[in-house]
Amino acid sequence: MFTTDRAFSGFSVDDIDAARSFYRDILGLETVDDEMGFFSLRLASGASVFVYPKPNHEPASFTILNFPTDDVEAAVDELNARGVTTKIYRDDEIATDEKGIQRGRGPTIAWFRDPAGNVLSVLDA
């Protein structure tokens, strides 16, 4: 029978060890290994996100994980201090400032990538 009570999301990476280190050591998320060498991210909300290696991985062309925050600029400064580079866009559709923060077109938001090239963001809560 179809049920939704244990639904979860997932995404692929090209290097499972680099991804685990990034999410655990750089972003500070709880990672839980499974018996096959994959891992899950345990989010403070109680949600779980499955991370798995994929041969010929191609980064997602969309934002796979969003981190709401009360202060995007402070979050960007903290991420930059941890060695994370925010993405700076200069086109008309998605224009960001020198820190990589887009303001005034929807929520204030900044994008960055994991080691596999997947896009993540910090945005106004």
Q: Short summary of the structure?
A:
By secondary structure, the protein is of the alpha/beta class. It contains 2 helices and 8 strands, in the order E-H-E-E-E-E-H-E-E-E.
Description of the structure:
It comes from Microbacterium hatanonis. This is VOC family protein. It is a single chain. By secondary structure, the protein is α/β, with parallel strands linked by helices. It has one domain: 2,3-Dihydroxybiphenyl 1,2-Dioxygenase, domain 1, CATH 3.10.180. It is built from 2 helices and 8 strands; from the N terminus they run βαββββαβββ. It has a 4-stranded mixed beta sheet with strand order 1-4-3-2, with helices on one face. Strands 5-8-7-6 form a 4-stranded mixed beta sheet. It is globular, with a radius of gyration of 15 Å. The model has no long low-confidence stretch (mean pLDDT 93).
